[in-house]
Design goal:
Strand order of the largest sheet: 1-2-3-9
Oligomer: single chain
Strand content: 15-25%
Number of helices: 3
Number of domains: 1
CATH class: Alpha Beta
Number of strands: 9
CATH topology: Mannose-Binding Protein A, Chain A
CATH architecture: Roll
Largest sheet: 4 strands, antiparallel
Helix content: 10-25%
Shape: globular
Structural class: alpha+beta
Distance between the termini: 44 Å
Length: 157
């Protein structure tokens, strides 16, 4: 009887931890079950190392014209149709309780604690685009396309 209870208890703990996470780690990318998308684990300019389990290299900031070029290059090199995330998608990565960069470093290591581009224009002032700042955990619709910000690409599942 005690053995059965222990098995049930451990089974419930296992299933709770599996269902508690919205993310599945797949090496260089992360499956986001909630949003039904896949994120590149590393910021643009960095490269995933299976050996070191880390994003190596230096993240780069790009203006939106350069983001388009980088996106085309990425789609040639990695299967799929990668794109900039929407504001809602990128905001879903914010971790208010995380120290430093406001993002889960287990799934997104070495993420700069700075603003990242989204694909969305600011509807109040269309010459500006929305960004998500992983230093503050807030979104801002104040950057012109010529401004250089960090990028994390995503693709639909």
């Amino acid at each position: 009887m005690i053995k059965k209870q222990l098995i049930i208890c451990f089974s419930l703990l296992f299933f709770k931890s599996v269902f508690a996470s919205n993310f599945i780690d797949k090496g260089y990318y992360v499956i986001d079950l909630k949003n039904k998308i896949e994120w590149l684990k590393c910021t643009t300019g960095q490269q995933w190392s299976d050996e070191k389990q880390a994003c190596l290299g230096t993240a780069v900031k790009l203006d939106l014209k350069s983001v388009e070029e980088a996106n085309n290059l990425l789609n040639e090199q990695i299967e799929g149709e990668w794109r900039l995330p929407s504001r809602k998608e990128l905001e879903s990565l914010i971790c208010k309780s995380c120290e430093g960069a406001k993002i889960d470093k287990t799934f997104f290591p070495n993420t700069p604690a700075e603003p990242f581009w989204t694909s969305q224009r600011n509807w109040w002032s269309p010459k500006f685009f929305w960004s998500v700042n992983f230093f503050t955990g807030h979104s801002y619709g104040r950057f012109v396309p010529e401004k250089e910000l960090f990028i994390r690409f995503v693709k639909d599942r």
